[in-house]
Design a protein that fits this description.
TPGS1, TPGS1_C, microtubule binding, two-stranded antiparallel ribbon, elongated
Length: 260
Amino acid sequence: MAMNEKSKKLGEEAKLEIDKNFLEKNRVKETMSDLVTQLTANRPADPLKFMADYFQSSYEQSNRLEKSYQVIMLSHHSRPAFKQNVATAFDILNQTKLTKQLTGINGMLFDELLTLLLKDTPSSAAAKFKHKLCRRQHEAVTYEVFYYAVSSIVLYRDYLELSNQLYELLDVGSNGQVDKTYSEIVISQLRSSFSLLSQQSSEGELQACVNLSPDGISAALSKASASAAGNKTTLNHDQFMETAASAFLTIVEKLDSTAT
């Protein structure tokens, strides 16, 4: 009997955890909080109709957000189609109905897109990344801001992928630890290369390719071999990726808010 009660309790706890995850995944708390704020601020004559309109608008926003994200991810940022895809994604999201009379992209919607683009990246760095690119909640987002943010994030995703490959290259003992001095040299080389790529010039792209070639990486590591010899400090995978992510953030410009 006691065992049955314990199993029942565990089952209820598991269900509560699943329900909690469902609510968090679908941003129910944020949605309801915003709805209450809107109701309090607007004090509509017909609250039920206001709520129905609000949820219809939220549904349309969600659809446009997902579609915009999918269009952005259609092609690699190095392909000619990328710029056109970003423009299309902006147009899709820019038709979002924010109020009865107003359509466009505000800071809140923009933040949701940044969250989608930054998923599966180190969480602490992602928060700092969003802080540099975010707009105020009700501030209009221009195409220039939109394009800069999107192109910075897709470049960052490539950077993280390459960082992971370089970590595996440095982990010669396959023990999950890499030399800190070598790591810092490689990350510095990687950061400077992506800084050149972000300038979108043919000369910069050529130099970045040279820096990231096997010969370029090897030359950088050779220069560091003397100082690394007496240094036994190591980094694990998470530490290496966090260090790499933080280094990339230094080349991302903070977008100043224009709202008053």
